[in-house]
Specification:
With 567 residues, this protein is mainly α. Helices cover 62% and strands 5% of the residues. The strands form three sheets. The protein has a four-stranded parallel sheet with strand order 3-5-7-8, with helices on both faces. A two-stranded antiparallel sheet has the order 1-2. Strands 4-6 form a two-stranded parallel ribbon.
């Protein structure tokens, strides 16, 4: 029997072929090129050096791929940590940051070895979207100064003060920097429309660097601010550990560990959906813990799974963790042989790269869905978002979780109903009875019983992993689902997506009360098809029979459902 603690890199060795190796090398080099500008940009925007970002990507990228629980996950520095890192450095300096990173590594190891990492799946979606939106806004705000080339030193760490500072010094804007940054932004956005093989950020980076070095464009560069990037291997240096800072830094360490766990597991889930694999959450968290314990020994910053780089890895043909290790070695080769060229990279171009990163990580498309929810869910999202931007990420997550827990208690309390059982109610219930119905061979049926909130939504995701065992038509019976929230709604959408991609059709039936109101105010009728959301089991079975007779329950009917659904 296979041990549950074996990394995916070991499992991948079984049956590993030359074609697998060639595919992994191609994907790894591609992702390495994508990661280069991001690593430098994250290092600079965090308030330290560009080489620290590259060192982090090299060391963590290799360790997470070698030890992790996902075949295609790419690890490294990400935008989620930028704000936290900058805040820690302002308060406690670089030594404080290195301590926080190592403390977060210990916490991640504890979560992985104890299996408690699965608890991060219970964080409600409005909280995740709220602080993701907030982090994106903060990242973008930190890049305005370099994007505009403002001729001022420093910048406040608080958002409102930073925006006031930028407004006061907007007249110092440099035209050459703005022109180059806008051109870089245009290239990053336009290149993917023509080819996915060459990353837009690399084209912009090379193009802007060549223009600056050949034509002597007077803009601020990595060389003018940092003196360039040193060649050679990262230097080992054990950081200063101060016991008196452990308690003051513990809240920041918990925030970093929580963010690392959430983002790495979300990234692993995305990788599973794209590659058809199934990651091991606990092994992945152990790898994240080892990486966060190791990178401070080389002056690195916190790391986690990187969703965009992971997706690029899979699209580039990666088949195993070898691709992630090649990505790290690609960055190391650049560091060893091409580091002197980096001195000409303009900071405005790196700011443009981070603007795109901030937009892509912001989950902006989720906001319309959030706004269709109950006012209490909207309040949780809005408060988390506002606190992330104007206060502190640690406070935002803590307050968001407390509000979500209170909301959970409130919603569960409302599921208790005392009502008279009348003859009319008994007659109405007959259409919902399953016992006297014949379930045809082409139908798989499930039911949700009780409140389907953020603490329970993961149970439907477990069903989605067995999609290949299901019949062409799947009926999800909601008669006894007593409450529904944004996380539960999202789980139903993901279940539908899994079924739809496999050529299966999802039918919902029997929802009532608060779940029914939320379903019809959400995007589910448009996604699933209004004709596939029915009042009871009788009508659901009738609909299934019609689908089976006309289309065999697959493909065309799902497409028709989308076309017929009201927008």
């Amino acid at each position: 029997m296979t041990s549950p603690w074996i990394p995916k890199s070991i499992e991948a060795l079984k049956g590993y072929s030359r074609s697998d190796c060639a595919a992994d090398i191609t994907a790894g080099i591609t992702v390495g090129l994508v990661a280069l500008p991001l690593a430098m940009a994250f290092g600079i925007s965090s308030g330290i050096t560009p080489q620290a970002g590259i060192y982090t990507a090299v060391i963590a990228g290799f360790l997470i791929s070698a030890l992790g629980g996902s075949r295609t996950q790419i690890g490294g520095p990400t935008g989620a940590f930028v704000v936290v890192i900058a805040s820690i450095i302002v308060k406690h300096g670089l030594s404080g940051l290195l301590m926080v990173t190592m403390m977060a590594g210990v916490i991640l190891l504890f979560l992985g070895f104890t299996g408690l990492g699965n608890a991060v799946k219970f964080i409600p979606r409005p909280v995740i979207i709220g602080f993701t939106n907030g982090i994106a806004v903060l990242i973008a705000s930190t890049q305005i100064k370099d994007f505009l080339g403002l001729k001022v030193e420093g910048s406040p760490s608080e958002f409102l003060e930073r925006m006031r500072f930028i407004g006061e010094h907007i007249t110092t804007m440099d035209a050459a920097t703005v022109a180059l940054a806008l051109a870089s932004l245009a290239v990053i956005l336009i290149v993917p429309r023509f080819t996915r093989r060459v990353p837009g950020s690399i084209v912009a980076l090379i193009g802007a660097t060549v223009c600056v070095s050949l034509f002597g464009i007077p803009v601020e560069t990595i060389g003018s601010r940092f003196g360039g990037i040193p060649s050679g291997f990262p230097t080992f240096q054990f950081p200063e550990l101060r016991p008196d800072l452990i308690m003051p830094l513990l809240p920041s360490a918990l925030t970093v560990a929580l963010l690392a766990a959430i983002e790495s597991l979300l990234s692993a889930v995305v990788a599973d959906s794209m590659s058809g694999d199934r990651h091991n959450s606990n092994v992945e968290l152990v790898a994240q813990g080892v990486a966060n314990l190791t990178v401070p020994l080389f002056g690195g910053i916190p790391v986690t799974g990187a969703i965009a780089r992971t997706a690029t890895n899979i699209r580039s043909g990666a088949r195993s963790p070898v691709a992630g290790m090649v990505h790290a070695l690609t960055l190391l080769c650049i560091l060893l042989f091409a580091a002197p060229l980096a001195r000409h990279i303009p900071l405005g171009t790196l700011a443009a790269v981070l603007f795109v990163v901030a937009y892509n990580m912001g989950e902006w498309r989720e906001i319309p869905m959030i706004l269709r929810l109950d006012r209490k869910d909207i309040a949780v999202w809005l408060i988390t978002f506002a606190l992330t931007v104007v206060a502190d990420l640690t406070i935002a997550v803590e307050v968001g979780m407390v509000l979500a827990a209170l909301l959970y208690i409130y919603q569960v309390s409302r599921t208790t109903v005392v009502a008279p059982l009348t003859a009319e109610a008994i007659e109405k219930a007959r259409s919902h009875i399953v016992q006297d119905q014949t379930i045809p061979h082409y139908v798989s049926m499930f039911h949700i019983q009780g409140p389907f909130l953020f603490g329970a939504a993961e149970k439907l995701n477990q069903m989605a992993l067995k999609v290949d065992e299901l019949q062409p038509i799947v009926i999800l019976r909601l008669r006894y689902m007593t409450a529904l929230d944004a996380t539960g709604l999202h789980a139903i959408e993901q279940f539908h997506d899994k079924l739809h991609k496999s050529g299966r059709t999802l039918i919902l039936c029997g929802s009532r009360g608060q779940p029914k109101r939320l379903i019809y105010t959400s995007s589910l009728p448009r996604i699933i098809g209004a004709r596939n959301i029915l009042p009871n089991i009788r009508s659901a079975l009738s609909r299934a029979a019609d689908i089976n007779e006309r289309f065999g329950g697959v493909g065309e009917e799902a497409a028709m459902g989308l076309a017929e659904a009201p927008v």
